[in-house]
Amino acid sequence: MYIETALSTALSRSTRPSIQQTGSLQSVLQESISIAYSFAKVFMTKHFPRNGFFDRAQIHVHLPEGAVPKDGPSAGLALASALLSLALDHPLGATVAMTGEISLNGKLLRIGGLREKTIAAKRSGATTILFPKGNLAEWEDIPDNIKDGIEGKPMETYDEAYHFLFKDLDVSRAWTLWKDELEQARALEMADLADRRRDDKNGMIMPGVLPPTSPGTGPTDQAM
Fold this sequence. Notes:
This protein is of the alpha/beta class. Among the domains are: 1-89, Ribosomal Protein S5, domain 2 (2-Layer Sandwich), CATH 3.30.230.10; 93-158, Ribosomal Protein S5, domain 2, CATH 3.30.230. Helix content is 44%, strand content 14%. It has helices at residues 27-47, 53-56, 76-88, 114-123, 136-141, 144-147, 158-165, 171-175, 179-201, 219-223, and strands spanning 4-7, 18-22, 58-62, 96-98, 101-102, 108-109, 128-132, 151-155. Helix 1 (27-47) crosses helix 3. It is elongated and about 80 Å long. The N and C termini lie far apart (76 Å). 27% of the residues are buried. Residues 217-224 have low confidence and may be disordered.
C-alpha cells in the first residue's frame, strides 16, 4: 500500500493547519491517520521546535487505488514517517517498506499478516522492511525463501525507526526549513494588527463595535 503526502497550499498568514484524507479509507485507517498526524506534531515539537511546519500546513494524505477500500491500523508507522518526511523535506528510501501500528507516544505495536506484507514488499522492490519488535517471532517463522533478498528490522519505538529512516537528515537545515515562510506570515499578521489598532484609534467603526455618540444622541437621551 503506497502513501502519498503533499502540501496543499503554500504556508502563509491565511493558512490554518489541517489534514485532508482521500483514497477510499475505512474507519480504522482514518483513525490511524489522525493518530499519526498527532504523533508527528508532537514529535516535531519535541525534536524540531523551531521548524513550525505543522503550525500552518494544510496537508493532503492520499492512498492510491481509490476504488479499493483500505482499512486497518498497520499503516501507522508509514503514515507518521510520510508526514515527517514532508515536514523535514527529506525523502524516504524507495526500497524501504514498513508496517506497524503506532501509538500517540511513539510505541510500535504488533500487527497481523507480516508474512503477507513481506511478500508484497518484495514484489514492490523493497530490500528492507521495518516492523514492530512484537512481530519478531513471526518474522523468524517466515521461510528463508520468502525472506531472501529483504532485510527485516524490528523496531520497538518510533525513535528507532526515525534514526534509521532519517539518518542522512541535515538537522541544522531541518530546524529552520520553513523560517522564511513563517516569518513572512507573522510579519503580515503583525502589520494587519497594527492597521486595525490604528483604525480603531482614528475612530473608524470596527465590526461589532458601536461608534461613539455625541451628547444628547445616545439611546438614553433619545428615549426621554
